[in-house]
Amino acid sequence: MLQSLAVIALGLLPSIHAITLTLPNQLINNPVKAESEVRAGDFDGSKLWPGANETSYDWWYFDAVSATTNESVTVVFYNTGPDGFPFGYNGGGPFSVGISGSFANGSLFSLTAPVTGDVVIKTDESGISGEWSGSGFSFYGTSLDGPNPTYVLKVDAPAIGSYGTVTLRSRAPPHVSCGLGHSGSGEELFPNVFWANAQPDADAVVDLRIQGTPVQFADGIGYHDKNWGDAPFVSVTSSWYWGHARLGPYSVVWFDAIDKAGREYFSGYVSQNGELLQGSCTKNAVVVRPWGKNSEYPPKAKTGIMEGLDIKFDLGKGKEMLVNVTTGLVLIETDNYVRTEGTAKATIKGSGGKGAYEGRTLFEEFKFN
Ligand SMILES: *[C@@H]1O[C@H](CO)[C@@H](O)[C@H](O)[C@H]1NC(C)=O
Ligand SMILES: *[C@@H]1O[C@H](CO)[C@@H](O)[C@H](O)[C@H]1NC(C)=O
Ligand SMILES: *[C@@H]1O[C@H](CO)[C@@H](O)[C@H](O)[C@H]1NC(C)=O
Ligand SMILES: *[C@@H]1O[C@H](CO)[C@@H](O)[C@H](O)[C@H]1NC(C)=O
């Protein structure tokens, strides 16, 4: 009897990893724990245990920018306390969903959908789904272990007049700050801030209607990651540059930040035709500096929008990738935050000098000084 039970249990082994997590729409009133290492099969899952308290946060971020028009969209699913990531806190409970971006004529939209119910996150060997109940927003992703993982965001949110879908099909492997995201890889970016980048670059198809205006493009450069933290974001972060770009066969992601202790942290990612070329968090793995107008470094709250960014990826063995980003349509501007579209040019040094690539980028800057 015991023996046959054991056999049945073994037969079911793969589905042992199937988890349905239901998070109630209320803050935890105790210390919470932030995941700090990749757990097999749960790269994109919920990262705070048992949930978010007042000073912690967990979010799922998706964006897409058209290669040829002004159009873009960013969707962020939040689980945050008021002092965790205050810019994502909407009052009431820890959950909300933000959708913002730009129309073809260059005008901007920014809307927040309230969440009335639970957040339900399901993970199993086929992938992940996340539903922010009552908001009209959900996402579905195929397994990150398969080829070209694909995420679909579904939007049916009458409260904010937003409808449609965003589809992101990966063309570059997932990573964490120091390289590919294997089971056990560290997820810390700098103390109290964590990161898992499920889709560093994706072909994006956007088919949305926002308050009656279409945001529709099939030539999108897409991206999806998540960040989380177990201390107030604003008290541990001084400034940061993050962004992604597609340049010919290359997909790049940069992260170069300074924490409140004044230490600089780096995470550089370059893949070529879907193969990793660089995934590193060593010193100067990627160095990002503003150029032109408003190029004060480190940036301050009152520093205006940089004209562009000079980005240097160390590819090892004397090779470097230089990416020159020029700021384009600005999507969000506050004293503490800038998000913008842009164009980028890349050259590779140390590879015989051949090859210059042009492309599209979406990037951001935080500054709390
Ligand atoms: C929230 O969690 C953090 C991280 O564990 C902890 O430092 C903080 O004291 C917690 N807050 C409450 C109200 O328990
Ligand atoms: C794109 O946006 C810019 C800035 O708002 C605007 O001047 C331009 O006309 C827009 N392009 C098109 C094709 O509408
Ligand atoms: C651009 O499109 C938006 C959305 O349809 C509209 O509200 C706005 O008036 C347009 N702006 C211009 C300058 O035409
Ligand atoms: C970056 O591009 C701008 C605008 O084209 C140019 O003025 C600047 O010299 C470039 N920077 C580098 C380091 O090539």
Task: Describe what you observe in this structure.
This protein has 369 residues and is mainly β. It folds into two domains: 18-231, AttH-like fold; 239-369, AttH-like fold (Beta Barrel). It has helices at 2-11, 233-236, and strands at 19-23, 33-34, 48-49, 57-66, 72-80, 95-102, 108-114, 119-124, 127-132, 137-142, 150-157, 162-170, 175-176, 179-180, 188-190, 193-210, 213-229, 237-247, 250-259, 264-272, 275-280, 286-291, 308-316, 319-333, 337-349, 356-367. Strands 1, 4, 5, 6, 7, 8, 9, 10, 11, 12, 15, 16 and 17 form a 13-stranded antiparallel sheet that branches. A nine-stranded antiparallel sheet has the order 21-20-19-18-26-25-24-23-22. Residues 1-16 have low confidence and may be disordered. Bound molecules: 2-acetamido-2-deoxy-beta-D-glucopyranose (4 copies). Residues 70, 104-106, 329 line the site of one 2-acetamido-2-deoxy-beta-D-glucopyranose.
Order of helices and strands: HEEEEEEEEEEEEEEEEEHEEEEEEEEE
Number of helices: 2
Largest sheet: 13 strands, antiparallel
The CATH superfamily name of the largest domain is AttH-like domain
Bound molecules: 2-acetamido-2-deoxy-beta-D-glucopyranose
Helix-strand makeup class:
mainly beta
Distance between the termini: 67 Å
CATH topology type of the largest domain: AttH-like fold
Q: Residue-averaged pLDDT, rounded?
A: 94
Helix content percent band: under 10%
Strand content: over 45%
Compute the gyration radius: what is it?
20 Å
How many strand units? Answer: 26
The CATH class of the largest domain is identified as: Mainly Beta
**How would the global form be characterised?**
globular
